[in-house]
What we know:
Blueprint (H helix, E strand, L loop, with lengths): L6 H5 L24 E7 L3 H4 L3 H11 L4 E7 L3 H10 L17 E5 L6 H10 L15 E5 L15 E3 L6 H14 L5 H8 L5 E2 L4 E5 L5 E6 L8 E2 L27 E4 L1 E2 L10 H4 L4 E2 L2 H15 L3 E5 L9 H12 L5 E3 L10 H6 L7 E7 L3 H6 L6 H13 L4 E8 L6 H20 L10 E8 L16 H14 L5 E5 L2 H11 L5 H10 L13 H10 L4 H5 L14 E2 L4 H12 L28
Parallel strand pairs: 1-2, 1-3, 3-4, 4-5, 9-19, 10-13, 13-14, 15-16, 16-17, 17-18
Antiparallel strand pairs: 5-6, 7-8, 11-12
Helix pairs in contact: 5-17, 9-10, 13-14, 14-15, 17-18
Amino acid sequence: MNHQLTSALLKSVTKPGRYTGGEFKSIIKDPAKMACRFAFCFPDTYEIGMSNLGVRILYDVLNREEDVWCERAYAPWGDMDAVMSERKIPIATAESGTPLGEFDIVGITLQYELCYTTALRMLRLSGIPLLASERGEDAPIILGGGPCTYNAEPIADFFDIFSIGEGEEALPELCRLYIRMKEDGTYTKSAFLRAAASLEGFYVPSLYRVSYKDDGRIEKYEPLYPDVPAKIRKRIVADMDKAPYPESFVMPYIETVHDRIVLEVYRGCIRGCRFCQAGMVYRPIREKSPETLDRQAKCLFGNTGYDEMSLMSLSISDYSRLDELTDRLLAWTDDRHVSLSLPSLRVDSFTEELMEKIATVRTGGLTFAPEAGTQRLRDVINKNVTEEDLLRAVNIAFGAGKNSVKLYFMQGLPTETEEDLAGIASLAGNVVHAFYKNPNRNRAKGVSVTISVSCFIPKPFTPFQWEGQVPLDELKRRQMYLKDCITDRKIRYTYHDAEVSQVEAVFARGDRKLSKALLLAAEENMMFDAWDEYFSYEKWMSVLERAGIDPAFYANREFGEDEWLPWDIIDCGVTKSYLLRERHRAYEEKTTPSCAEHCNGCGANCLGGKNRWCK
């Protein structure tokens, strides 16, 4: 723990267990024997960060290196932040209590755009200069990773390096480069960054010049040196069966978001939903074998004692050997009273057999994601599910005694009309009717259908990356229109804050000019924008205005198909020509089959990887 946090200070804040460290299974090494010390920072609360599987995997991977010690740090909540600011106490790691400024490399995972201010707040609290250009030789290398690095431009001025793609092989390779240059006497910060840029999957933004057109659009990106790559190709792990996976997790002292065993079943997605960034950037699809997963599950159960296990993937019911895997797991989890959870189920692959296998799940209902209220719009977004698929799936659930269903939808999708919005209410109503028509329903309770509606945000590396987000006033109007369409009290309607979604869209599609706004936000101590308690739309509009930025230029403008996009410097494997083809098919209301049915030539096979889908 941070040794400056006394007992009295800890007692003065909520959830002091966030800051004490010393958790069971945390890794302690001798700092005198370490050639590289790496601080892995999660820019959100301890409860959120401790539940992140990516952090758990990379913490384990880096600590397998004998001369590398990876430690963890999390953002302090507001009350502790105030104490640390007043007393000038820097953020320190949970393992050794070492301040972040004393590490060789500080890695910050960027899971969502609204964590940017919190990431900067962690640096500021640690006394580390925010701008990369202002950090000297003695400052840590600031490394960014995670999904947001697929468009790192809005935060490019603050980071020395970005890790693009999967880190299991890339991060140890970067640490080995650092150690080698330190040992042979060739290390300087600039020399290290130049050498890191030659490693596959690492983007060093200071080694590129960006020029702009008179209208504010990007003219081009230029590497400053001939040995710096014009494009940065993401890294992947080719064979998931051989990929390192933790044999245990650090066990928290307080409740976290996911207190359970998490098994990563496969990476990628065979579907091609046109709004979904994860489904594109995590390609190609690579599965683990049931034998590997069963072995990892038993190991984690033995080392953690968790009584709940969740199978993780973008769409678990698309795993090609799901029946074999669940049979293997249920052969021992039932006897040990371990409940099995299968999230991310698709309605078109939900079966009675699968329902029986998850009957032990302790939750009261199931979740499905039709995404749109009409078949026309589902075809536009390439969801490839029908109302009949949904009703068949909920009938299986109702027949098995479930009486609660949650349905996810999006609002503001390209080509959306009021008829599509009304279709959401109609579809939810048909689910209610299906419950009462089901002869095997649970008659002890009534039915509950929750519809959760998020706002569409155009994301990089999707067929909809060129689309503008619906303007804020119109988004709000559509939310109220749908509310008026819902007349059944058995249907509960929740929707995402449209103002939050607009700020997300600005930073999802932004360029380097947004770093000026983020710097202003950091100077005004903005943080935790993903939390209702802290997010302020008025503050963001003020910051953007003072930075000379029009939010509509990034959020609401339709980008030109021949325009240089801020993320064009990254090669995620999926080609731009494929994304354009899919965009055009969307406007023709044509669907594209899944990878399991037909290889659609997205380009991800160029990355290699052991998989059965790419041709």
